[in-house]
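Page 47, continued from p. 46.
Same chain as before, 436 aa.
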Amino acid sequence: MQVARRVVCALSGGVDSAVAALLLKRRGYQVTGVFMKNWDSLDEHGVCTADRDCEDAYRVCQILDIPFHQVSYVKEYWNEVFSDFLNEYEKGRTPNPDIMCNKHIKFSCFYHYAVDNLGADAVATGHYARTSLEDEEVFEQKHIKRPQGLFRNRFEVRNAVKLLQAADSFKDQTFFLSQVSQDALRRTIFPLGGLTKSFVKKIAAENRLHHVLQKKESMGICFVGKRNFEHFILQVSILTTWTSCPPQTWAPSVMELCLQYLQPRPGKFVSVEDNKVLGTHKGWFLYTLGQRAKISGMREPWFVVEKDSAKGDVLVAPRTDHPALYRDLLRTGRVHWIAEEPPAALIRDKMMECHFRFRHQMALVPCVLTLNQDGTVWVTAVTAVRALAPGQFAVFYKGDECLGSGKILRLGPSAYTLHKGRSRASAVPEGPHLAP
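Result:
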């Protein structure tokens, strides 16, 4: 008789991970549930949301009659995710903590805990995503030591696992998984990859999981004001993941958070059209390109198009569709390629056509990648894209496959800026009296 496969499933206390665990048990696997405590926070009633989620996850395990474990990665989360969040803001960038959390916490800390401490044959999560492996193929995977270096030996690892988009395109979460390592991915099962959200809710309702079915949809990661880390007594809970919750919808406490951790850098709001000063702000790092800038005394909406780190000024433009908001060129840092580093077509031709997005659920944008010797890429969008911002991740797709992602470090100028520069140049008279 074959021994049951051991699968350790990450439980968040929500409906998706609960149904994932249920489906794994139905397949006959020996399932263990693990709740990760990554951050402490209080809701508006002073209740610790992490404790409440932990209780909901424990109840799921009771209903499914599976073992339950709780682990704390508060310190790791602080060092790997929150510190990066603050560092990016200090540089004037727009971070994505969800992608970093998956990379460093869920598919590193949790993955190694499940395999090394709980003897897992595979791990599972409630993400809406798929891989190129069937379940039995996942269990056959062994740990392969990955070669080091800028470009890994392309023949070192054969039959690499691909990350594929979920059947439910609206709920697809490959965007947030675009930095996951090949090692973790090859031993991961996504039970919800072929299901729709509505069907997942139906399964929960039919299997006594009403306590998680009634919970609100999770919208991101909760951060708090400055507190003693050792005691981690947090007083407020605020949404920060701008990919799920755009900056213009953030609560004021997000800005308070940045001001508590980062040195205030007050400056001016300046019109990109005529350089007129429209107002003042508390810190240019609080703003991301594309978001609405609430300027005192201004009735019409203005939007952030550029930030001057030297002067501390935030350049703004009227109208949400102003041409200064659109760009078609960006450069990433070194790209994390999931299955093939880099893709064969990019190695062969130094250029490759694909699609990309820089926000979850935004429409995919056709683009051309140009490979640089240091592993970074230039991304040229076929059509100009609104509100690109450094710090975000450009996530690349070829058909249903998520190829990987790279952090946006530089942006090309907008067509509006180029036109304005040419106009200024043509207005300057030429002659020997001009300074060289």
